[in-house]
């Protein structure tokens, strides 16, 4: 009787051991797969952040170029506004022309890496929540904001062109001395100064801050 009981206990132990081995093997396999997948995700996130850092550095360069272009356009518009009627008469009598800046503004922001990473559903691979939120804010709030202010400026600039075309049969000195047209140019200068402020106080500082945060994350 004891031999039979001993035999049953041995069999139970063997079964339990086999179950334990199977469960352990499955658990280990799942853990290794999860670890491997997580490691791969973090590698993808690291490559993305490295590319994003390059994009942000280029964004800063483009912002500085655009700021200078706005500044130069504003100087030329202010010179036009300062012209008196006698000065305008003198310019056209000498068969010269008023130099009206024709520059459609707007920096070329680098968004391809961000859009590709986000649209593939991988933005969650960035585990640093603070950094992730700053990236989302930059690309979903600040980049669209500067695109919008540049659009306002360009729309208003084209209104100036429309006014010039409408008055193509009139002497140019008459157009440049027209109070309504001068008011239009004044507003264009104000928009240009506002856009420089948006670049300086909002977009550029966040770009610099993001680069520092990315470098800190990559050096962990």
From TrEMBL:
It comes from the Bacteria. The chain crosses the membrane at residues 12-32. InterPro entries: DUF6090. Pfam families: DUF6090. Keywords: Membrane, Transmembrane, Transmembrane helix. This is Uncharacterized protein.
């Amino acid at each position: 009787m004891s031999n039979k009981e001993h035999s049953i206990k041995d069999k139970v132990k063997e079964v339990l051991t086999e179950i334990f081995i199977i469960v352990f093997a499955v658990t280990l396999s799942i853990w290794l797969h999860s670890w491997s997948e997580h490691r791969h995700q973090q590698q993808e996130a690291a490559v993305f952040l490295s590319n994003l850092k390059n994009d942000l550095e280029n964004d800063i360069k483009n912002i500085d170029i655009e700021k200078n272009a706005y500044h130069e356009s504003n100087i030329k518009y202010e010179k036009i506004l300062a012209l008196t009627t006698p000065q305008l008469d003198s310019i056209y009598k000498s068969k010269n022309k008023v130099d009206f800046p024709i520059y459609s503004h707007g920096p070329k922001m680098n968004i391809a890496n961000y859009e590709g990473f986000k649209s593939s559903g991988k933005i969650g691979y960035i585990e640093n929540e603070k950094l992730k939120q700053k990236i989302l804010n930059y690309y979903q709030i600040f980049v669209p904001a500067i695109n919008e202010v540049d659009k306002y400026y360009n729309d208003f600039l084209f209104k100036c062109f429309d006014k010039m075309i409408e008055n193509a049969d009139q002497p140019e000195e008459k157009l440049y001395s027209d109070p309504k047209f001068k008011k239009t140019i004044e507003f264009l200068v104000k928009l240009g100064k506002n856009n420089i402020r948006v670049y300086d106080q909002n977009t550029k500082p966040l770009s610099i801050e993001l680069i520092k945060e990315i470098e800190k994350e990559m050096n962990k």
